[in-house]
Design goal:
With about 280 residues, the chain is of the alpha+beta class. It is built from ten helices and twelve strands. The strands form three sheets. It has a four-stranded mixed sheet with strand order 1-4-6-5, with helices on one face. A four-stranded antiparallel sheet has the order 2-3-7-8. The chain has a four-stranded antiparallel sheet with strand order 10-11-9-12, covered by helices on one side. The protein is globular.
Length: about 280
């Protein structure tokens, strides 16, 4: 059985405060995009994992697909062994949620193939044990996300009709590091989205008004550490983007355009580039 885990972008990302459990409360919009990995499971005599495509720079034991399998195995000990093959097309450490998507789709694959009859609510609960943005991929529709990112409310929102350009400079950003860089910003109350309106309200405004209203809080520390990423955003605006921002904790930057643009300037630098119509 095969499935195709897709990526997401964050439209606005406000980090509100650090919680007693060590996580952070956020507000963001998760928006799915059809840039996809391929994930296949087949019966096997032992648990196996293979991969092709973009390099995966973590051990097999730490791979989120493997973690998803073992998570279900605890509650369903009769689950048979499977061979997992992942073809990676979504870059890692890119703010696109590729690993989280793979884990969420793994849960759904096992549920469907093995007829475990796990409800959507329970799948979301399992997904949260793997990562804060994993639950989104169980729903996989535009959502406003709060709490750790697990409180999800579907919204009537679409970017259909626009061209979305994703540029990744092949820089891996560690999410834990990115949150650590926000510590002083959160303590001082300097979250830039705190303008009296929630992100959910801001996105009701025309896209070309978002530039002055909608901010990803991670941009300040990430741009300071990696000026190259900031330059990508500035270049997208120079090329006519209605709105441009970093997704998640980086390093992917996306631009929203009214029409197709020439990405040659980024191709010359060997960046990862995708266009979504």
């Amino acid at each position: 059985m095969i499935s195709f885990p897709n990526c997401k972008i964050n439209i606005g990302l406000q980090v509100l405060n650090k919680r007693d459990d060590g996580y952070h409360n956020i507000e963001t919009v998760f928006y799915p995009l059809p840039i996809k990995d391929a994930l296949e499971i087949i019966p096997s005599s032992a648990i196996e994992f293979t991969a092709t495509g973009l390099p995966i720079d973590i051990s097999i034991e730490d791979n989120l697909c493997i973690k998803a399998y073992h998570l279900l195995k605890k509650d369903f000990p009769k689950i048979p062994f499977v061979k997992i093959h992942l073809h990676k097309a979504i870059p890692m450490g890119a703010g696109l949620g590729g690993g989280s998507a793979d884990a969420a789709f793994m849960l759904m694959l096992l549920n469907d193939k093995l007829k475990l009859n796990i409800t959507t609510a329970k799948l979301i609960a399992y997904a949260l044990q793997i990562g804060s943005d994993c639950p989104f991929f169980i729903i996989n529709k535009p959502c406003i996300a709060t709490g750790r990112g697990e409180n999800l409310k579907e919204i009537n929102f679409t970017l259909a009709g626009y061209k979305i350009i994703l540029i990744n400079p092949r820089i891996h950003i560690n999410t834990g590091w990115a949150f650590s860089q926000l510590a002083k910003q959160i303590h001082d109350g300097n979250s830039k989205n705190a303008l009296g309106n929630s992100i959910n309200k801001i996105i009701e405004q025309p896209v070309d008004s978002w530039k002055s209203l909608l901010v990803n809080d991670f941009e300040t520390p990430v741009f300071t550490a990696y000026p190259q990423i900031k330059e990508i955003k500035e270049t997208l605006y120079k090329m006519g983007a209605l709105y441009a921002a970093m997704s998640g904790s980086g390093s992917t930057v996306y631009g929203i355009f009214n029409s197709t643009i020439d990405t040659t300037i980024f191709e010359k630098q060997n960046y990862f580039i995708k266009t979504v119509n």
